[in-house]
Design goal:
Helix 2 packs across helix 3. The protein is α+β, with helices and mostly antiparallel strands. It is about 25% helix and about 30% strand. The strands form three sheets. Strands 1, 2, 3, 4, 8, 9, 11, 12 and 13 form a nine-stranded mixed beta sheet that branches. It has one domain: Nucleoside Triphosphate Pyrophosphohydrolase, CATH 3.90.79.10. The chain has six helices and 13 strands.
């Protein structure tokens, strides 16, 4: 790695991101999915722009993601997580388990569907077994999540005393895993008002949260390194106002 990305996170943070005057709270488990298209000369990622009226990160470019839901762990899949990915997802957590690890990956897949209309996985003649209404679109489209093709890129915990805190896991999957598209999900009245495909090196110049830009560079390093599940996963966090980047 040519740059100290942990230091870069600290250097790039905006004044607003450094404001730690809010009541402290426990970070919530969350997952984000960076969809990547490597079919061309330059790998591209899918970015979504949030609605300007949102109180949280209005107008920012982000990757689809959100909080883990209880039913996510119960969703069926055509393949399970690579063992190395499961091990890294369970590292440095209070209650590690296979269900917890797969729930994080499934959260990322579900959030991608809800925010962009893109269902990732494998389409089959029979619908997947779904645990509840939040996964109903996968059953309708007969799309089975394919966790073996989901890669963990990074983990980052929002610094203490911020208005919203997440323990976020950043995943990636290839654009070839798009099995179905729901039209009309993205638009002027939606959570995401537009979607764009951007080369990774250009995406970091868009208006986005600092940690998102840093993780984009981690993604570029992962692509250059061959995208193996066994590659180390960086973990970003802050303790006593000091920034840390450790490898899982």
């Amino acid at each position: 790695m040519t740059r100290d990305l942990g230091k870069l996170w600290a250097e790039r943070m905006t004044k607003a991101e450094r404001d730690q005057t809010f009541p402290d709270s426990e970070p919530r488990d969350a997952a984000t999915l960076m969809l990547i298209d490597r079919s061309g000369a330059k790998p591209k990622v899918l970015l979504g722009r949030r609605h300007a009226s949102h109180k949280f990160m209005p107008g920012k470019f982000v990757f689809p993601g959100g909080r883990i839901e209880p039913l996510d762990a119960k969703m069926s899949a055509v393949s399970e997580l690579h063992p190395d990915t499961e091990t890294k997802l369970n590292a440095r957590v209070v209650n590690p388990s296979s269900d917890f690890a797969r729930a994080l990956a499934l959260t990322a897949v579900r959030e991608m569907a809800e925010e962009t209309g893109l269902l990732l996985g494998v389409k089959r003649d029979e619908p997947p077994a779904t645990p509840g209404e939040i996964w109903a679109e996968f059953a309708k489209a007969r799309v089975h999540p394919d966790l073996g093709n989901v890669h963990l890129i990074a983990r980052a915990i929002t610094p203490p005393r911020r208005p919203k805190r997440f323990d976020a896991r950043f995943f990636t999957a290839d654009a070839s895993s798009i099995a179905h598209r729901i039209e009309g999900v993205v638009g002027p009245d939606s959570e995401l008002v537009e979607l764009i495909w951007v080369p990774i090196e250009e995406a970091t110049h868009f208006d986005m949260p600092t940690i998102t830009g840093v993780v984009l560079e981690e993604l570029a390093n992962r692509v250059a390194g061959g995208m193996g599940h066994d590659l180390p996963v960086p973990f970003y966090f802050m303790v006593d106002r000091q920034f840390f980047r450790e490898l899982l």
